[in-house]
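Sequence, please.
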């Protein structure tokens, strides 16, 4: 897990990213760990950079056929525009 801080979509604050996905159309999904928000099977909350940048629910089985890259190793991933990684001490 890696924490980001930002305000690129009108929301200022931090989010905990647990996975990064890039689809074949080059949309990026920053999957968010939200232990207080239980999701039905297959759903995840994500910051999505596509036509617009937004936070919302994603049904992972729907995008799985289109995934080009998927990783939980977040140290080499750039944050989305308007966000930055919080460095741990």
């Amino acid at each position: 897990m890696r924490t980001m801080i930002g305000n690129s979509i009108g929301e200022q604050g931090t989010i905990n990213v647990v996975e990064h996905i890039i689809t074949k159309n080059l949309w990026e999904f920053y999957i968010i760990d939200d232990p207080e928000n239980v999701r039905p099977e297959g759903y995840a909350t994500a910051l999505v950079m596509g036509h617009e940048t937004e936070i919302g629910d994603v049904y992972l089985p729907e995008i799985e056929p289109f995934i080009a890259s998927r990783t939980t190793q977040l140290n080499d991933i750039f944050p989305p525009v308007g966000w930055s990684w919080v460095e741990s001490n």
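Residues 2-77 form one domain.
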